[in-house]
Amino acid sequence: MVILEGKNVTKRFAGLLAVSDIDFYLQDGEILGLIGPNGAGKTTLVNVIAGVYRPSEGEVFFKGKQISGKKPYQIGRMGISRTFQVVKPFPGMTVKENAAVGAMYGAGGKNKSAKEAIQRAEEILEFVGLADKMNKGADQLSVASRKRLEMAKALAMNPKLVLFDEVMAGLNFGEIDQAVELIKKIRESGMSILIIEHVMRAIKNVCDRVFVLHHGEKIADGTVEDVLNDETVIKAYLGRRYKELTH
Ligand SMILES: Nc1ncnc2c1ncn2[C@@H]1O[C@H](COP(=O)(O)OP(=O)(O)OP(=O)(O)O)[C@@H](O)[C@H]1O
Ligand SMILES: [Mg+2]
Predict the structure, then answer these.
(1) CA 234/CA 54 separation, integer angstroms
(2) At residue 143, does pLDDT exceed 80?
(3) How far is the CA of 114 from the centre of ligand 2 (A)?
(4) CATH number, domain at 45?
């Protein structure tokens, strides 16, 4: 079953075409990778799906219902959550309190008491491997733990679909492999995932399919193997850097 679908999605900022007439879909239980150079329009597309921006043209559907034009909190309640590329912990709150906020604002969050939200936060922090840091201030965490907290806040919302925007940026190889395992575990627990990542090691290990944006346009989509060997993609994005990483 298709859980998320975009049709002719375009987002303009004044004269700049950040996302240009994109079609995409995500099946239930699928991990879809979204890659492309800096400024390609990846985060803008996440913002369109999450309701931060209304598309300038086109439509987005979640479980067959149109969501484009809805507010972020409405889309969150429907079962989509997202992380932020530049992590956004609530300052002055503990790790546990941060995750509890997610629990109160996601699917079913309206009916949760503070106690239930805290309980959910504890479960999620255990799940992402932050149980031992629950009572720390969010601003005391290392980069890798901050990224995990960003994921925990999104997962605490109890989503059916989660949008991960560069949750592995700044991590070392060991930490990336741990994050890959976590993402596999998230899918096994019944969620679909859209993942933006520059780390090809991760894209190769977790994605079922990938699509590539370049200057707002979709230049390729398909299996990981086909896309990563596509001449247009190598030229526009992967280039030498990819060869350095894989050889
Ligand atoms: N709010 C905004 N107002 C004006 N222009 C914007 C806005 N947000 C993004 N842009 C522009 O839209 C284009 C796409 O940006 P976007 O952040 O989506 O790229 P990206 O693919 O996520 O890049 P990166 O890999 O660096 O995160 C860029 O040219 C960017 O400068
Ligand atoms: Mg981005």
Answers:
(1) 31
(2) yes
(3) 33
(4) 3.40.50.300
pLDDT tens digit sequence for 9-67: 999 999 899 999 999 999 999 999 999 999 999 999 999 999 999 999 999 999 999 99
- Tens of pLDDT, residue by residue over 106-132, are 877 677 888 999 999 999 999 999 999
**In angstroms, rounded to a whole number, what is the distance separating the alpha carbons of residues 97 and 88?**
13
| Alpha helix segments (H runs only) across the chain | 42-49, 72-78, 95-105, 114-128, 143-155, 173-188, 200-206, 224-228, 231-233, 239-246
Q: Are 154 and 237 found together in one domain?
A: no
Say yes or no: 166 and 247 in one domain. Answer: yes
| 137 CB within 6 A, ligand 1 | no
* Same domain (yes/no): 210, 174: yes
Which domain covers residue 185, as residue numbers? 1-72+160-247
Residue nearest to atom 4 of ligand 1 (CA): 13
Do both 116 and 238 map to the same domain?
no
Beta carbons within 8 Å of 177's beta carbon, 6+ residues apart: none
Q: Which residues, other chains included, contact 172 with Cβ-Cβ below 8 Å and sequence gap of 6+?
A: 144
Quote the CA–CA distance of 185 and 189 in Å, as a whole number.
6
| Shortest-distance ligand to the CA of residue 214 | 1
Q: Are residues 60 and 177 in the same domain?
A: yes
